[in-house]
Design brief:
Layout (H helix, E strand, L loop, with lengths): L2 E2 L7 E6 L2 E8 L5 E7 L2 E6 L5 E6 L8 E3 L9 E6 L2 E6 H8 L10 E2 L4 E6 L7 E5 L4 E6 L6 E3 L10 E10 L2 E8 L4 E7 L8 E7 L6 E6 L3 E4 L2 E3 L1 E6 L3 E6 L34 H7 L2 E6 L5 E6 L4 H5 L4 E7 L3 E10 L26 E11 L6 E6 L8 E5 L4 E4 L9 E6 H13 L14 E8 L2 E6 L4 E5 L5 E5 L3 H9 L1 E4 L5 E6 L3 E6 L3 E7 L4 E8 L6 E8 L4 E8 L5 E3 L4 E2 L9 E7 L2 E6 L3 E7 L4 E8 L7 E6 L6 E6 L4 E7 L7 E8 L5 E9 L6 E9 L2 E6 L4 E7 L7 E5 L7 E7 L2 E7 L4 E5 L7 E6 L6 E5 L4 E7 L9 E8 L6 E7 L3 E6 L4 E8 L7 E8 L11 E9 L1 E11 L3 E8 L3 E9 L5 E10 L3 E8 ...
Parallel strand pairs: 1-85, 41-46
Antiparallel strand pairs: 2-87, 3-4, 4-5, 5-6, 7-8, 8-9, 9-10, 11-12, 12-13, 13-14, 15-16, 16-17, 17-18, 19-22, 20-21, 22-23, 23-24, 25-26, 26-27, 27-28, 29-30, 30-31, 31-61, 32-60, 33-34, 34-35, 35-36, 37-38, 38-39, 39-40, 41-42, 42-43, 43-44, 43-45, 46-47, 47-48, 48-49, 50-51, 51-52, 52-53, ...
């Protein structure tokens, strides 16, 4: 079949959300700072002050940007250097200024280099002069162009041509460039490139380092570092496949003065160009070079992609502060290291010029050694891979930034203010000594007592007031500041003795604290009045639980639990009268659980909800005489506590719970009958915390919007998390969650928080005025997207990726301003444990997903009926008809309505070559309708053809043998009615278009072909009336396919492939359709999506491609 010529292209790129492949800082004339970010071939400019996208422009037509270089004297420059693959361009600064003004300048001229480019620099602020380093260790000069071109390339120069995986260039003098290259075979080559072409040789080999046990993925040359008076060194950092960071001394001793007659250091052997042959082992000279390894450390759990030196401030240089190194890895973590140098005893060996060249007379350079200390780490991206990193070269800046495969850009926070930032580690002896010095003057230490004392419990009474108790029953009040001011709260010996035996302390509202003791007494503490007894109970107070959901500014109410009792007591304190009131009504626990221990409580409307340590939630009604439990349920699969209960703002029927199982849930109180209210689970999600301790709703005064904030633990760290924005607010290493702690945050600025805990007998307090990291740009999946689905009304878009997560989005399509377009994440679903195969919506309220391990879930999607405008998602059902081993993949499925509005017909194909159909309803669950077995190949696709009560169920499947099959359900067995070949190998994608009694089946195959099959219903069965195939529709497998529109015998289809092309085709029936179809290629555009997995029409005229990233096309 012939393919007609291409017509006017109907595809236009609307938006991309792709991996961030390069980052650079730019400062304009007035001092305003910006971030230049590369997203595929687009250059995007963000304001560092406001974190907003200011402009974007296309740099390369069909190539990602891999690097950006801005000369350090920004604001007085002519060009910015950009490169990617073989492509190189110089962007005039005037174009960047136009972009900042809201204009879109023309794309600069793109030149192709002879090889892949790894790094580049410009030699001066004016003029197009610089150098590039290629993948074969060759320096490619950038020289002024001729015939109207801004630049061109000079001749290549190299000491050897090994295959590099990384390289870095550093301008030593106006005539000399220092080059470092990391090879595939684990060696590092350091050499000089001389710009003077009249020299006998323009290259000078310095060192060949060995030691890494894998390919070198990153190298970084430090500036001159003053490590002692009049002593400078230059270092090289490297990272590798072996997960280590190494630091090397590359101070140049090769030009040491020879007035004493000593020869110069001998020339070094070349590095390996391949892994074979006579030069595959390092020579003795190379081994001496490897002694220059200063320090080695391992911290990442997988490969390390980047390593960068942090520039020193003038103060750090004067204080000879440790050298700071950052590493960025495949594990999505950013790790900070400090290098402590052990200087040689003979300092003469390190005296150098500003260029790093030794000037002292020495016989042999002493070895520089040191230790890399791990300072901290943060996992700031989703999925895998930090593809770009920026550590500011400016000595006045501490900016550290990373861009991930998830398209997210994360930056270090703005400068920390010492007044608001506290990191305190204090032993109890140090605390008591400081307290004595503060209150009594500087007295000698008292002799140690025989009674062991220590920190016990904490409660924040406000943002700057901390109440702390000791194990001996003492109370102390701290006022946070610089320094922290402590004072001892005076209590009687009897109270102290009771608190020393056991104590519980809670602060339900600012300014007050409730304290329970072993003798059964409950006290109230306020700073003006001191401590006051409120109530006496029969036995030890086991807990005091804040009763939420009511205004507590005048009457503060808590629930008190007493050891050995199966009920709880309600205790109130009136702040105006100063009187306490014990409610005579008791709260009796659920008798079905013998180990019921109260952990949380709140009112939702006029109903009281209690949460327990075993995960049981209980609903109570209230009368003037009693509280009556009317309903209970347990959704936690383990015996983990419900840690908090929080009514949704503006709702009297919906509330949120958090649990130590790492999930938060939202329930709605419904009333099927007036006398039997029940709690219905509406939402269940796992944020990135293993334990959730509590939640608040924070309203920003600037935006007047509500954010949901959690705090809890993940691993050894305390985490504060903004669930609405998917931002980490704090990450504090505290050892583990099993320790006394307290936490408070600002209700309007949740990044401003204080966290105190006990670790190894020490009180540790962390206070921050802002999060240590901030998100400049939100991202998405960090792994390849395998499925994309849009809801019936295009309200929601769902994507599923190799990271086993499902994300639900809304797409903002602003036709007037491209900067306002983008995806907003509404929910992240993390129930699957195997690779997700397919997604499909049923209406707007049901999302269905299938995966390996026979995982098949039906998600119910609704909205919260409250002031908090979130998306509510709960897994309503899971597939239970599993095979004995439960290890099959559910390759694909189709869903449609079944008999009534509440039912579904679901047909799925599994990796054991079976096709299965089920009816599903919320009340009835899954019911098997029929099974069919296909032999010889695996089924990959399935669609419903015809569903009719009188004529049965007809489905069409595609398989790995290139065949399309039509099945009919007869009784409980599917029988094959039609089999026809359309591809030579596996069918990867399929879609249908129905027109009257004609079904157009369109398939994309692993054979790079696009096939069209016309089926006709003759009243009894389906017959083939036409078949055509475009043999080389793409240069690789057709992995995604979608029918765009059709009618009158014409079908338009969009396809994507691993060849990174997006195409639109028009198929027209010839005659009556029995002679096949003629196919015209309407559009053939470069797609930035590598490893494309699926595509979907997400709105009228909008086509979305998912793979390594997401992009939206106008069609």
């Amino acid at each position: 079949m012939g393919q007609q010529s291409q017509s006017a292209a109907p595809l236009r790129l609307n938006h991309v959300l792709n991996p961030i492949t390069a980052l650079e800082e730019y400062t304009e004339h007035a001092g305003e700072r910006y971030i230049l970010a590369a997203e595929d071939g687009w250059l995007k400019v963000y304001s560092l002050r406001t974190d907003t996208l200011l402009g974007q422009m296309r740099i390369f037509g069909s190539q990602s940007i891999h690097g950006i270089y801005v000369p350090e004297s920004a604001g007085q420059i002519d060009y910015i250097l950009l490169w990617g693959g073989h492509s190189v361009t110089l962007l005039p600064e005037s174009s960047l200024c136009d972009l900042l003004k809201g204009n879109t300048p023309p794309s600069p001229e793109e030149l192709k280099g002879p090889d892949w480019i790894y790094d580049g620099i410009l030699f001066s602020n004016q003029g197009p002069e610089g150098a590039l380093i290629t993948a074969h260790n060759e320096v490619l000069p950038i020289i002024p162009g001729k015939d109207g071109r801004p630049f061109s390339f000079g001749p290549l120069t190299s000491p050897s041509r090994p295959i590099l995986y990384s390289a870095n260039l550093c301008l030593l003098t106006p005539e000399t460039v220092l080059v470092a290259g990391g090879t595939v075979f684990g060696e590092i080559i350091v050499w000089k490139y001389h710009l003077d072409s009249s020299r006998a040789s323009q290259w000078e080999l310095l060192y060949v380092f060995t030691g890494h046990e894998g390919s070198i993925f990153g190298v970084s040359i430090s500036p001159d570092l003053e490590v002692a008076p009049d002593t400078k060194v230059r270092l090289l950092a490297s990272c590798s496949d072996d997960r280590t960071v190494r630091v090397w001394d590359i101070t140049d001793y090769s030009q040491t003065t020879v007035s004493d007659g000593l020869p110069q250091i001998a020339a070094l052997a070349e590095a390996r160009e391949t892994g074979f042959g006579g030069n595959s082992e390092a020579t003795a000279g190379n081994k001496k070079d490897s002694l220059r390894c200063v320090a080695t450390a391992m911290g990442h759990i997988s490969r390390i992609w980047h390593v960068k030196f942090e520039s020193r401030t003038e103060q750090q240089t004067q204080q000879y502060a440790p050298v700071v190194v950052y590493s960025f890895g495949e594990d999505c973590s950013r790790q900070k290291w400090e290098l402590d140098l052990d200087l040689p005893t003979s300092r003469d060996t390190l005296n150098t010029t500003p260029n790093g060249t030794a000037t002292s007379v020495v016989t042999s350079p002493a070895r520089l050694s040191g230790t890399l200390r791990h300072i901290n780490q943060s996992t700031c991206h989703n999925g895998k891979n930090i593809w770009s990193a920026l550590v500011s070269r400016k000595t006045s800046s501490s900016l550290v930034m990373s861009g991930g495969a998830d398209s997210k850009i994360v930056a270090s926070a703005r400068s920390r203010t010492s007044q608001d930032e506290i990191d305190l580690n204090l032993t109890f002896d140090e605390f008591t000594q400081a307290l004595r010095e503060l209150s009594l003057g500087d007295h000698p230490k008292r002799p140690a007592t025989t009674v062991k004392n220590g920190f016990n419990r904490y409660a924040f009474m406000s943002q700057n007031k901390l109440l702390m108790t000791s194990t001996s029953g003492e109370l102390f009040l701290g006022t946070l500041g610089s320094p922290i001011l402590w004072k001892k709260v005076e209590v009687s010996e009897a109270i102290q003795a009771g608190l020393g035996a056991f104590q519980v302390i809670r602060s339900p509202i600012e300014g007050t604290a409730f304290i329970g003791s072993a003798p059964g007494k409950v006290y109230l503490y306020t700073e003006p009045l001191g401590i006051k007894e409120l109530a006496q109970y029969q036995s030890k107070i086991t807990d005091i639980v804040r009763l939420g959901g009511r205004d507590q500014r005048q009457q503060q109410t808590v629930i008190v639990t007493v050891l050995g009792q199966d009920h709880a007591h309600i205790l109130s304190y009136d702040t105006k009268t100063g009187e306490a009131c014990q409610d005579p009504r008791l709260l009796h626990f659920d008798k079905d659980y013998s180990c019921y221990i109260l952990t949380s409580a709140a009112y939702c409307g006029d109903k009281l909800i209690l949460g327990s340590r075993v995960g049981v939630l209980s609903l109570y009604t209230e009368t003037s005489n009693a509280f009556t439990m009317i309903h209970s349920r347990k959704d936690c699969k383990t015996k983990d506590a419900i840690t908090s209960i929080l009514p949704l703002p503006g709702s009297t029927t919906s509330f949120l719970t958090t649990g130590r199982d790492g999930k938060y849930r939202v329930y709605t109180i419904t009333t099927p009958t007036p006398s039997s209210p029940t709690m219905v689970l509406q939402h269940e999600i796992s944020p990135p915390l293993s334990i959730i301790e509590g939640a608040i709703f924070s309203k920003s005064p600037q935006t007047n919007t509500l954010d949901l904030i959690f705090h809890g633990f993940r691993g050894k760290s305390f985490i504060a998390w903004n669930e609405t924005r998917c931002d980490e607010l704090a990450n504090i290493n505290c050892g583990n969650p099993h320790r006394p702690f307290s936490y408070i945050s600002s209700p309007t600025d949740p990044g401003k928080l204080v966290f105190v805990f006990t670790l190894s007998g020490q009180m540790r307090l962390h206070a921050q005025s802002k999060p240590p990291l901030r998100t400049l740009k939100q991202g998405g999946h960090g792994r390849e997207i395998r499925a994309v689905a849009a809801s019936a009304s295009s309200k929601y878009i769902a994507t599923a990726a190799e990271d086993t997560t499902i994300r639900i989005w809304q797409y903002a399509d602003d036709t007037s301003d491209p900067r306002l377009r983008g995806f907003k994440s509404l929910a992240v679903l993390e129930k699957h444990s195997a690779g997700i195969q397919a997604l499909q919506w049923h209406g707007d309220e049901y999302l269905i997903s299938s995966a390996g391990n026979e995982e098949f879930y039906i998600w119910h999607v609704t909205r919260f009926e409250s002031e908090y405008q979130g998306l509510a998602v709960v897994c309503e059902a899971g597939y239970l008809d599993r095979s004995p081993d439960g290890d099959l993949r559910i390759m694909n499925f189709d869903v449609q309505g079944w008999k009534d509005d509440n039912g579904m017909l679901i047909t799925m194909v599994l990796s054991n070559s079976t096709v299965r159909s089920y009816r599903y309803s919320k009340m009835g669950g899954f019911g098997l309708l029929g099974v069919g077995r296909y032999t010889g190949a695996c089924l990959t696709q399935v669609r419903h053809l015809r569903v009719d009560e009188g004529e049965g169920i007809w489905v069409v499947t595609a398989s790995t043998d290139g065949l399309v099959s039509v099945w009919k359900l007869e009784g409980t067995e599917y029988g094959l009615g039609l089999v026809t070949r359309v591809h030579q190998s596996s069918i990867k994608s399929m879609d249908l278009f129905v027109e009257g009694d004609r079904w157009s089946v369109v398939c994309g195959g692993d054979d790079n072909a696009l096939a069209f099959l016309d089926l006709e219903w003759n009243g009894v069965s389906f017959v083939v009336v036409g078949k055509s195939r475009v043999r080389s529709a793409h240069a690789a497998a057709v992995t995604g396919l979608k029918v765009l529109r059709g009618g009158d015998g014409v079908v338009e289809v969009a396809t994507v492939s691993n060849d990174q092309r997006a195409k639109v085709w028009r198929a027209s029936r010839r005659g009556d359709g029995t002679e096949g179809v003629s196919v015209a290629l309407l559009a053939n555009e470069y797609s930035s999506i590598a490893d494309a997995g699926d595509l979907e029409v997400i709105a009228p005229g909008r086509l979305m491609v998912g793979g390594v990233g997401m992009e939206v096309w106008e069609v």
